[in-house]
Amino acid sequence: MNVDELVDRAEIHDVLVRYSRGLDRVDMALVRDAFHDDAWIDFPDEVYVGPVEGFCEFLSKEMPSFVRTRHNLGNSLVELDGDVAFVETYLTADHEATSYHKWDCAFVTLWARYLDRFEKRAGVWKIARRQLLIDWMRRDDSQTGWFKLPQAQLGKRDGSDPVLQQHIQR
Fold first, then answer.
1. 3-state SS track over 57-72
2. Structural domain total, the chain
3. N or C: the chain end with fewer CB closer than 10 Å?
């Protein structure tokens, strides 16, 4: 592996991380920036299949219907082929739904994989096609065992959450 391949892998990983942060902080600009303009999304049929613009519209309504979410990325297999990369990324996503969501206040965890086709266009890696495969899903309707933390300790989903630069400057 050479330095250029290491740089490509780091740039691809950065796109994945920023996308996840965008979901969890409900920052649709970060989510949208992960994709090329002509990207195609293939989530399970009951969720969303179609172009990226419709996907971002769907998420801008879906994500605020959760109290909180946390998307944790795991193993990423990156197969580079010039300006194309085939990337499989494992993820675990935790969700606490509001009463407005179809999960009605439940805690839901899914274990899944993103199957992505990344393309480097004009020197920038972004997702050109994404498929989500769900391996397991668990729903917990019980509040038992879940701690209720003070609001001051909770991450914010309204744009007021501290970013890394703000934290470091303190």
1. HHHHHHHHHEEEEEEE
2. 1
3. C
Q: Determine how β-strand 124-140 pairs with β-strand 107-121.
A: antiparallel
C-alpha to C-alpha distance for 71 and 19, rounded to whole angstroms: 9
Which residue range forms the structural domain that includes residue 138?
3-169
Cβ atoms of residues 42 and 114 within 8 Å: no
Q: Which two tokens stand for residue 148?
A: 């209720």
Q: What is the CATH number of the domain that holds 35?
A: 3.10.450.50
CA distance 130 to 118: 9
Give this prediction's pTM: 0.86
Dmax (CA) for the chain in angstroms is 51
